[in-house]
Amino acid sequence: MFFRSKKKQALWGDLGKASLLGIHLVSCTFVGFAIGYFLDKWLGTQPWFLISFLFFGIAAGFKNMYLEAKKIHEEEKRKDKGVDEQKG
User: Fold this and answer.
1) 18 contact partners, CB below 8 Å, separation of at least 6
2) How far apart are CA 74 and CA 44, in angstroms?
3) Which tens digit of pLDDT belongs to each residue from 26-65?
4) Triad 57, 31, 22: Cα angle to 5°
5) Per-residue confidence (pLDDT) for residue 17, from 0 to 100
6) With contact defined as beta carbons under 8 Å apart, do 16 and 3 qualify?
7) CB under 8 Å to 55, separation ≥6 — which residues?
8) Cβ pair 26, 65 in contact under 8 A
9) 24 exposed, middle or buried (CB, 10 Å; 0-12, 13-18, 19+)?
10) Helix axes 48-87, 6-43, angle to 10 degrees
């Protein structure tokens, strides 16, 4: 395997998890923007759907970021607890 040591594997795993935070925010914002844009174009209500769905997308992105960060934090607590139990 390319990454031989456990520390390097853990580092790359953590970096992958951290990159999900930004991906969640950007993708949700883009999806909200796209839905609002096409609804406005279809219904002729510029810019109301675009603005509202953009805000919904941003809110969904922050919610997903929060949940992912919480999940990462719980995993880290579980790892630290496992290390502490092995020492004790």
Assistant:
1) 72
2) 46
3) 999 999 999 999 999 999 999 999 999 999 999 999 999 9
4) 70
5) 83
6) no
7) 32
8) no
9) buried
10) 160
Q: Give the type of residue at 15.
A: L
Burial class (CB within 10 angstroms; exposed 0-12, middle 13-18, buried 19+) of 28: buried
Tokens for 3, please give them.
């990454």
Cβ atoms within 10 Å of 25's Cβ, excluding its own = 18
What's the predicted TM-score (pTM) here? 0.78
The size of the chain, in residues, is: 88
Alpha helices in 44-87 (DSSP H): 48-87
The amino acid at residue 74 is E
Question: How many beta carbons lie within 10 A of that of residue 61, not counting itself?
Answer: 22
For residue 37, what are its two tokens? 């844009």
